[in-house]
């Protein structure tokens, strides 16, 4: 059974150290940032988006548990007050050792239930083009492509 619980301070510390490094790696893989600047830019991005850590207003950070074992984390922004009916999944991770076991799909279903209870009727997300596994999951869950950014190194 998958459950989502609001992140506590200790879980947030674990999440943020992982997330900063993971985001930096994705930005490097996508060609957006160089290795020299990636970690600092990633850290700055998270500090800007979550100035009060897990208590930042309109941000809902959840720890994902399977049978009381932490298997991942998900972060949803409620676009209030400008548009409280919409949410945006800023980050979603199932830890590597738990991937491929169906936890991602179950967690996505759970976060949709929570989002509805919070008054959201639409959720968006961003996925890096190189992350084919995540793209496949989101498409299976009914998410549709709304924008595509393309680049070519010349």
Summarize the structure.
This protein is of the alpha+beta class and 154 residues long.
Structure description:
This protein has 154 residues and is α+β, with helices and mostly antiparallel strands. It has one domain: 3-Layer(aba) Sandwich (Aminopeptidase). Helices cover 39% and strands 23% of the residues. It is built from four helices and five strands; from the N terminus they run E-H-H-E-E-E-H-E-H. It has a five-stranded mixed beta sheet with strand order 1-2-3-4-5, with helices on both faces. Strand 3 and strand 4 form a beta hairpin. Helix 1 crosses helix 2 (35-49). The radius of gyration is 15 Å and the shape is globular. The termini are far apart. The model has no long low-confidence stretch (mean pLDDT 91).
